[in-house]
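Troubleshooting: if your tokenizer reports a length mismatch, compare your output against this known-good record of 184 residues.
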Amino acid sequence: MVENPNKLDLELWLDQDIIPRQNILKAKFWEILAEVGNSVDSEKLTQIHSSSRGAKLSKGNDLKGFPYQVLDLIRDFDLKVGLNIRVLNWFGHGLFLFVLLGKNHPKAPFEELTDHLWAFDQSLTPWEYPETLLKSASTSTPTANLLKKSTFYQWHKPIQISGEITDIKSEILDELNKLIFLLS
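Known-good structure output:
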């Protein structure tokens, strides 16, 4: 669709269905992420990383023009020794699981992550999702040299979901439990 910069899309402006539909969808995903966060065993997270601070939900309205929601587990973002597990629900783009490991973290299962179809992120900071996901700044076959040069280790994996709420929750938990097992 070619936009005329001097003309407003008044049909969209007057569409009273679009915003409520989006708000309902955001609320449902928020509930799913909250249930997922409450379903993860906090003792397992502490066993993986003793500095675990539990789960936290957050949201924003503009990641490259699209709303997003984030579920963080463990929440230690130190690029040297930290560990964080993040579920990113990026509207218009998909649902993704990220694991951020500090450069010196003892539980960095590189080979296992590669074997389980995780991609190693090559962005300069861990939070460059548009670069990582849209510009393919990642690789499924990181070299030893790439890992050595990186100042932190972040991996991601898309989560394929279906349309049923219970299925979505199960699909997210399934991927989270696989990751927690790899980190244990």
